[in-house]
Amino acid sequence: MRAKRSRGKRAVSRYGEFERRVAAACPTLQQPNDIRELCIMIYFETGSRIDRLVSDARRHFKTQGRAHLPWRRTRDPYKVLVSEVMLQQTQVERVIPFYKNFLREFPNAQRLSEAELSRVLTAWQGLGYNRRAKYLHGAAKEVVEKWHGKFPRTAAEIESLPGVGPYTARAVAAFAFNSPEVFIETNIRTVFLQHCFASRRTKVSDKEILLLVAEAFKRSKMEPREFYAALMDYGAHLKRSGMKLNAKSKHYAKQSKFEGSARQLRGHILKLLLQKPHTERSLVQQTGRSSADVRAALADLQKEKMITKQGSLFIIAA
Question: CB 95: neighbour CB atoms within 10 A?
Fold first, then answer.
């Protein structure tokens, strides 16, 4: 009897310690009930759910995995970075031709670093979010100048490159170097919301999901690049099947309308300046937007060092 009581106390003690660790890891969970709900789910309930998640993802990957994706056939960190940057807020099938054409023109960091920004932006035209091209150009320059052409290997080193955030750095480390990172993106988020939070609550934090990603990775015993490829492909499959669960995420934000937006105007201005220099007045006439809108867009583009001004003319930055 005493032995049972002793084991019970140890179990309670272990759970209490686990709850404290989760509370520390998830400061966004302000209410004790939220912390308790997550702890109970992970500690007592989620094991079987994660096993099912891993099993479903692995099975889908083996039978319907997207092995045709060109960036899945490379271990070159530069090429993986190009794919990850292009895939930000852009659908996979739309990225494929741009990825191939971009690498045909800029096959390595050295070639990209040597190119004029105008040439890089021209190659990027049609993909949108032109700031990504500027960041990628800057990252290539840093790889050549700071790292002497040898691509950094750790997630922390990769994250130090211009425009590279925590997710992109860890994705590059995992896919290029098979590094055992823990990260999340939209398709991975969908998988865990479906399997672990579908009937629970909204406003699920990515920090909560990351705990489950780490547990799933550990249980899967898969290689990092295979594990994340499987999760991404399975998540994309769930979305195509009609599961739209990312609204349950605390980080969900509905994309603003593109037509008439500042983003559309910025893209239009860059397209015009890639053809030839323009005055502010000329850009107002060409875009059909107000002087105030054009002036604000020009100020933003100058601040980001995408364009510069020579006399009365605006041009693409060197």
Answer: 21
Q: What is the pLDDT of residues 15-74, one digit of tens each?
A: 455 555 555 545 444 455 555 555 555 554 567 889 999 999 999 999 999 999 999 999
What does the alpha-carbon distance between residue 188 and residue 203 come to, in Å, rounded to a whole number?
Answer: 16
Class for domain 70-177, per CATH?
Answer: mainly alpha
Which spans in the chain are helix H?
A: 2-25, 32-40, 46-64, 77-87, 92-105, 109-114, 117-124, 131-145, 155-159, 166-177, 186-196, 206-220, 224-240, 262-275, 280-287, 291-303
If you ran DSSP here, which 8-state letter would residue 72 be given?
Answer: G
Q: Where are the domains of the chain?
A: 2-55, 70-177, 262-316
pLDDT tens per residue across span 178-228: 999 999 999 999 999 888 887 666 678 888 889 899 999 999 999 999 999
- The CATH topology of domain 262-316 is Arc Repressor Mutant, subunit A (1.10.10)
Q: Which residues are catalytic?
A: 84
How far apart are alpha carbons 193 and 126 in whole angstroms?
A: 32
Cα dist from 138 to 31, 114, 169, 298, 301, whole Å: 43, 11, 15, 21, 16
